[in-house]
Amino acid sequence: MKRKLNHFFLLLGVILFTSCGGSSSLGKENRSMRSTLDGTWQLAEVTYNGEGYYKSTLFNDANAKCYEGSQWFFRSNNSTGTYELSGDQCNPGVRYIRWSIQNDAEGNPVAFTFKFTDEQKKDLYGGAGYVFNIQSITENTMVLSGTESAGGDPVELIYQFNKIQL
Fold first, then answer.
1. Distances (CA, A) of 23 to 76, 89, 101, 110, 160
2. Strand (E) or helix (H) holding 113
3. The CATH number of domain 25-165, selected from 3.40.50.12780, 3.30.390.30, 2.40.128.280, 1.10.760.10
4. For the chain, what are the domain ranges?
5. pLDDT at residue 37 above 80?
6. What's the pLDDT tens digit per position in 111-150?
7. Apex CA 37: angle with CA 134 and CA 39, to 5°?
8. Which of 22, 47, 103, 123 has its CA at 20 to 30 Å from residue 59's CA atom?
């Protein structure tokens, strides 16, 4: 009986090992893209794709203008990070996040996601988060887009990040 159990676990291990091995190229691409984000970034500008003047609250937290100039820190080895808002009208302070990059079927990065956590990295708000389309990511710049509600209507926002420190 013990021998059959050992064979079962050996077979299970082989199946798990081989089933995970086929996606290594996707994993390497994702790891490479994730490591590109390591460090401190500044959200230089938030713009709206459309005509008119918009006022919106981002991430149920603060006015979009409060995010311009905010610093975001990404750590790829554990998918955590922070961003900090400043200014009296901006609900100042540090926010903790868990983030990821999602690839399409060909391994190309297409989405950046994040959700809020507490200082101990436990999910807040039931694990709900935000999804952004990746427009571009290089060693020094990142452009994301996402849809927010402004006056009850969906509006595309463009987030322009610049890397300021590794």
1. 19, 47, 16, 17, 31
2. strand 109-117
3. 2.40.128.280
4. 25-165
5. yes
6. 999 999 999 999 888 888 999 999 999 999 999 999 887 7
7. 145
8. 103
